[in-house]
Write a structure and sequence with these properties.
Radius of gyration: 17 Å
Distance between the termini: 6 Å
Structural class: alpha+beta
Number of helices: 7
Strand order of the largest sheet: 3-4-2-1-14-13
Oligomer: single chain
Helix content: 25-40%
CATH architecture: 4-Layer Sandwich
DNA sequence: ATGGTTGAAGATCAA
């Protein structure tokens, strides 16, 4: 079973790319972020034609998350986090699908640092941590997939100096991420690529970042022990980032034994 | 210090 997280950067601008990706890789579950469209503007028919049904939490213009599944409709568990710092921002959706609990997460970017946006990021991470603890306590197979907007370690970026003032690379952001993982989650990508120097999931549109491989790793799939036991692989479908009109993120995935 | 790019909205902002 293949489970993907993919920051699509505008579902309407990217629909053709997504449909191509689904046809090529045939993932069983796809967590999408940055739909940048309200629920009424989402191309549900196109998802269906591609063989997928989904649940979503859209937002006009910004944010927006979804969970799609092949041949089965995910069963919605919740939209938004408990105690969500700003319920108007659609950044979290959780569903049950194929016997798994799956969340699609679009964690706040937090730039620029030293502003309310960075404080909001940290507050959001705290609410996520509290909810994640409840999910772990349920001892069910659970995947927290999404764009965390956190570069976990130095080796997860092409340049430490370029990122030193970026919210994604601040010690506070990294500490909050570590604190979440330390509850008992497995960072599946790093598990399967312990020595990979250029394990990236995002390349900026600017300054030829893709051509220079100036990327960083911010899309993560955190697995509960019940999922970690079933992991067969994890990787980044980098080919999708090289397509015309690609998202600035590449689809990132885990494989699970049935 | 600045600018480079993209999407969606709307004459900028968020990333």
């Amino acid at each position: 079973m293949k489970i993907v997280t993919f920051n699509i950067n505008g579902i309407r601008a990217r629909l053709e790319r997504l449909v191509e990706y689904l046809a090529a890789e045939k993932p069983d579950i796809v967590c999408l972020q940055e739909l940048k469209a309200g629920d009424d503007a989402l191309p549900a028919d196109a998802f269906e034609e591609a063989g997928y049904a989904g649940v979503w939490h859209g937002q006009k213009g910004f944010n927006g998350v979804a969970i799609l599944a092949k041949g089965t409709k995910p069963e919605l568990r919740r939209k938004g986090l408990p105690g969500d710092p700003d319920p108007d921002q659609s950044r979290y959706i959780e569903a049950e699908v194929d016997g798994l609990v799956v969340a699609s997460i679009y964690l706040p970017n937090g730039n620029p640092i030293g502003t309310a946006k960075f404080a909001y990021k940290l507050e959001w991470m705290e609410k996520l941590r509290l909810h994640a603890a409840d999910l772990l306590a349920a001892e069910r197979p659970t995947v927290l997939a999404g764009d965390y907007n956190v570069i976990p370690e130095d080796r997860d970026t092409w340049s430490r100096s370029a990122m030193k003032d970026d919210a994604l690379f601040q010690p506070e952001s990294q500490q909050a991420f570590r604190r979440l993982v330390a509850q008992g989650w497995t960072d599946a990508l790093r598990l399967f690529h312990p020595d990979e120097k250029r394990l990236y999931t995002f390349w900026d549109y600017q300054r030829g970042a893709w051509q220079r491989d100036a990327g960083f790793r911010i899309d993560h799939l955190l697995c509960s022990p019940q999922v970690a036991d079933r992991l067969t692989g994890a990787n980044v479908d980098k080919w999708a980032r090289g397509e015309e009109k690609a998202s600035d993120h590449a689809p990132t995935w885990i494989g699970l034994a049935d």
